[in-house]
Records
---
Amino acid sequence: IFPSLAQAQASVANEVYQQLGQPSIFLFCPTEYCSSLCSPSPSKSCYLLTLGQELLPGIGIIWTGPKVVSRELSATLLEEVEGVLQRCPVIWDNLYANDYDCRRVFLGPYTGRAPGLMPRLRGLLLNPNCELQANFIPIHTLGSWFQNELRSCGRPDHAGMETATALGDSQGTQEGSYSPQEALELALLDWVAEINRQALEPGR
């Protein structure tokens, strides 16, 4: 019926989206959901180009970055993806995911995400460790990163897309910029306080 997989997927997704009354949040995960799965590249992928053209504009498209588990995200990469998908992507961040190897647990701060990404994102989802208690630092430091991004977007000199893009590939610690080390220290203080609070609960 359909000349390509992308057109089939877009047709079904559009129909479901419309049948549901075009909800404000409707996410589509493409078969090519990171750069390493694209052939030959995101900007030249016939599959992604078709999705960008065919999917209704209200549908958010999930993207994990350069790889399934991406160590870094840059504004340059997101700009390329935005161009081919004709919308800002929703980042599904697998930085802390350990469902593929449960012998590993990731306890470090949210890092490798360049400052100034907010204008390039439609949303960001964090795929955490399978172990609930291990996610205090990941979620706490993600919150610190997010708050810093909001403050940056609110500054007059960071309001424009051009400035945000220029900052996007800088990992420098400018004044007021997100510091993974500082975020980690704040998270540890709060985590110790939470552990102590739970230890004092009756029955603990």
---
Amino acid sequence: MLNMVFLTNSWLTSFNQPGLCITMAMLLHYFLLAAFTWMCLESVHFYLALVKVFNVYVPKYILKCCIAGWGIPAIVITLVLIINKDFYGNGSLSESHPYSNFCWIQDNTVFYISVVAYFFLIFLMNTAMFITVLLQIHSVKTRTQKTFKFWKR
């Protein structure tokens, strides 16, 4: 959906309908945050599968992932809309090209908080999970090699 909204955004902006533009900007923002959130959930799943292998049963795991994956971005979008719906709007990249308009976040502060900071937090989480998984794999490999050397002797 992120790709679909991104590709149709410029074309729909050409209709000069403020409501349509706000909707497209909001959808683009939502699906971008949802993609980031699902990326984070993948790293959590990766961690659970490779580090916490045993006793990891989480009741209604998929439902909880879906609520987090689709709900957290919805909360962010709702907060932005509650604060001011005019944060979303038409931003022109170039006046000489009629199809260069793009509906997106108009306020830099909102952009940096709701997109850049959000991505940065998820990037930190993914990095932490990745390092933890690497350390776990390395420790398993080291223990296996020590056991092999012990039995070889």
